[in-house]
Design a protein that fits this description.
The chain has 418 residues and is α/β, with parallel strands linked by helices. It contains 16 helices and nine strands. The strands form three sheets. Strands 4-3-5-6-7 form a five-stranded parallel beta sheet, with helices on both faces. It is globular and about 50 Å long.
Length: 418
């Protein structure tokens, strides 16, 4: 990691580190803080057009995948890989997942549970089906850049094999996919920089630097300035006030862990209604049935294209099976989360029947194939404020889902915390 900094900064850093009695602890928190700093820096990256990915001096042009969102995700993911290495946890799915799982809220929630500093990225793509996710994970992401845990967050619409999969067809017909098929990968030149830490290392347990308190003027900025400020904060807070203020500066094993994140803290780190450097897209709209259906027609399930010729048998189920086989071979735990739906959506008999069939299939498959299935489909059907529309969560619903997942002890979070 030290290649990121100037020689003068390295000398200053090592001088401080050699004087401290808690060197392992500081090294343990370094990668987590650098990840959060990098996210702040990446906030300045604008949404990119889909015709050609990464048109700038530092990133070579790569042909489009005929999906603007996939092109954008590849650009942001490459930035992360070259800076801090692969994520510990990867979230995948369609637009429901894109705006339905907040990596920052999940990261902070897991820190409260004893897993601080995890790198989490949401690699969701509008219109993605099981086939699209299988393609992304198995064909686009190189094996040395895979996460330690994958969460596929979506629902039944991603598994209807009876309808035309336009997103997948557009991707496989793209120049970007042709390049992949010929052995040219857009992420192949990204140099992973994963920092490893022993799971028993106390430096990764209940650590919380008190440097985000605005009243103390320790708000992180971006780039080298942020790293310099981190050096200064560590030197001042830990060296001068270590004995009398250690409970304010660092949480040690045996002390109270960082508190659960609040909605306010999560929102403060986001640019609303814009693509985030974590891959998340926070929507601020709140679903109001009265006004919503004045703007949009109420489409019955029988006329909804997502449920056209509905069947769960076919290419989508086969793609899920392929994805499960692959993640098992790579030693990556696989979790599927059925995301919440609004009561106005579930009230339709066609959609309700399809949802029930999907639940039954996923329960059976999870038992047969050994992956984790979490059903949140009926979690908050009447909480309109958590939805942007009847089938998509907003930033408030995403926050609630993320905290719910962080508190789920059946998910093997320890596998990501290695």
């Amino acid at each position: 990691m030290l290649w990121l900094f100037k020689d003068k900064e390295i000398t200053k850093f090592l001088g401080v580190m050699n004087k401290l009695p808690i060197l392992p602890i500081l090294w343990g928190i370094f990668s987590g803080l650098l990840w959060e700093t990098t996210l702040a820096k990446a906030q300045t990256v604008p949404t990119l057009p889909g015709e050609m990915i990464a048109r700038n001096a530092s990133t070579p042009a790569y042909p489009s995948f005929n999906s603007q969102r996939l092109d954008e995700q590849l650009f942001l993911y490459q930035q992360m890989l070259t800076t801090v290495g692969p994520p510990d946890i990867l979230i995948v799915g369609s637009s429901r997942s894109l705006q339905g799982v907040d990596p920052i809220a999940l990261q902070q929630g897991l820190a409260h549970q004893g897993y601080p500093g995890l790198k989490i990225y949401n690699f969701s793509v509008n219109g993605a089906t099981a086939q699209v996710i299988d393609l992304v994970v198995r064909r686009i992401l190189p094996q040395n850049q895979l996460p330690r845990l994958i969460i596929f967050a979506d629902g039944v619409r991603a598994f209807n094999s009876g309808r035309v999969d336009r997103t997948y067809e557009a991707i496989v017909a793209s120049k970007g996919y042709q390049a992949i098929a010929s052995g040219i990968n857009p992420l192949a030149n990204a140099t992973p920089g994963r920092t490893t830490t022993s799971p028993t290392d106390p430096s990764r347990e209940y650590i919380n630097l008190a440097m985000n308190r605005q009243e103390e003027g320790n708000v992180l900025s971006t780039g080298y300035q942020a790293v310099n400020q981190w050096f200064s904060t560590v030197s001042t807070v830990v060296t001068e006030n270590y004995h009398r203020q250690k409970e304010r500066a660092i949480w040690f094993p045996g002390f109270e862990p960082p508190p659960m994140p609040t909605l306010e803290t999560a929102i403060a780190q986001q640019s609303p209604n814009l693509m985030q450097p974590t891959g998340f897209f926070p929507i601020t709209n709140r679903y109001d049935p009265t006004t919503y259906y004045q703007k949009f027609p109420r489409v019955p399930g029988r006329y909804d294209g997502d449920y056209s010729n509905f069947t769960l048998e076919g290419q989508q189920k086969a793609a899920l099976s392929s994805l499960i086989t692959y993640t098992k071979a790579q030693g990556i735990p696989f979790v599927f989360v059925n995301l919440p739906l609004n009561q106005d959506y579930l009230a339709d008999p066609i959609r309700q029947s399809s949802e029930q069939q999907f639940r039954q299939m996923m329960v059976a498959l999870s038992q047969q194939r050994g992956f984790i299935f979490r059903d949140l489909g009926n979690e908050w059907p009447r909480e309109h404020g958590n939805f942007a529309d009847p089938s998509h969560l907003n930033r408030y619903g995403a926050f609630a889902v993320s905290l719910r997942l962080a508190q789920d002890e059946t998910i093997p979070w320890a596998n990501a915390f290695r």
